């Protein structure tokens, strides 16, 4: 990646220093992955890179101040569905023209990876593909030094590669990544079961014993549901009627008192 960056910097410097009307268009197909290139170009030449929107970079302050929506800069990374056609007409995708009608001189640099991988012979990191178009062998994946810095920061327990580079094996890649882990020993994650499920006994039991056996299926006791006490019908009355104990030789009065209480 550093070698490709040096090649792009030399090409951009040799072009934009000719005049203010010499501009560079970075033909970037993806939305992300070019931050490394944008940052270094801006720091090297002291100009911001023009992009369509800044929304996706709002949460990246280290990159945000290297970008702009001002079309008057000499380095562009703006995008358009017909960007290739615009370039053939010597126009930028954003449609900017010089203020005094002097035509702009534009070159296109297309960062690529697969295109260089399909070449049968070794080529330079910068290849001229047209009168004013170039391809740069740019890697979108992190380098080993970047991976090393990242792992040293988060200090993981284990690291597993997603893909295996050509000419090596999974074991060799693991050996390279092992010193970057928290422990030199490859500690596999251990999973603890939540509990043990017991087998129900096939025995005919009484209803009470059967309920107890069902509750014994799990180690932890099941929570007892809260039972709301239903108030007695007599307690619903706000007033308590006074009652007088009557002797047994007065049955008529006792009957009247009882009937009054039931009616209430």
Automatic annotation (TrEMBL):
Key words of the record: Endonuclease, Exonuclease, Hydrolase, Nuclease
Keyword presence, Manganese: no
Compositionally biased intervals (Acidic residues): 208-219
Pfam families: DRMBL
Keyword GTP-binding: no
Highest rank taxon of the organism: Eukaryota
Domain DNA repair metallo-beta-lactamase, first and last residues per copy: 62-165
Biased composition (Basic and acidic residues): 250-264
Renumbered residue ranges of the record's region Disordered: 208-264
Molecular function in Gene Ontology: endonuclease activity; exonuclease activity
Listed name of the protein: Protein artemis isoform X1
Species name: Sus scrofa
């Amino acid at each position: 990646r550093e070698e490709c960056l040096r090649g792009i910097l030399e090409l951009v410097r040799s072009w934009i220093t000719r005049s203010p009307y010499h501009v560079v268009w970075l033909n970037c197909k993806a939305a992300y992955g070019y931050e490394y290139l944008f940052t270094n170009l801006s720091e090297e030449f002291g100009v911001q890179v023009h992009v369509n929107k800044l929304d996706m970079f709002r949460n990246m302050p280290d990159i945000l101040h290297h970008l702009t929506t001002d079309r008057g800069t000499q380095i562009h990374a703006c995008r358009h569905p017909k960007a290739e056609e615009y370039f053939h007409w010597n126009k930028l995708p954003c449609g900017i023209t010089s203020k005094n009608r002097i035509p702009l001189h534009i070159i296109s640099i297309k960062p690529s990876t697969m295109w260089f991988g399909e070449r049968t012979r070794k080529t330079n990191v910068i290849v001229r593909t047209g009168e004013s178009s170039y391809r740069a062998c740019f890697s979108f994946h992190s380098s080993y030094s970047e991976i090393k810095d990242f792992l040293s920061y988060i200090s993981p327990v284990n690291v597993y590669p997603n893909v295996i580079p050509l000419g090596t094996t999974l074991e060799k890649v693991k050996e390279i990544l092992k010193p970057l882990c928290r422990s030199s020993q490859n500690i596999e994650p251990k999973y603890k079961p939540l509990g043990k499920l017991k087998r129900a006994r096939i025995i005919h039991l009484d209803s009470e014993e059967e309920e107890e056996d069902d509750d014994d299926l799990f180690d932890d006791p099941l929570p007892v549901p809260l039972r709301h006490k239903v108030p007695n019908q007599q307690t619903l009355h706000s007033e308590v009627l006074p009652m007088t104990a009557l002797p047994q030789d007065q049955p008529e009065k006792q009957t009247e008192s009882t009937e009054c209480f039931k009616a209430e």
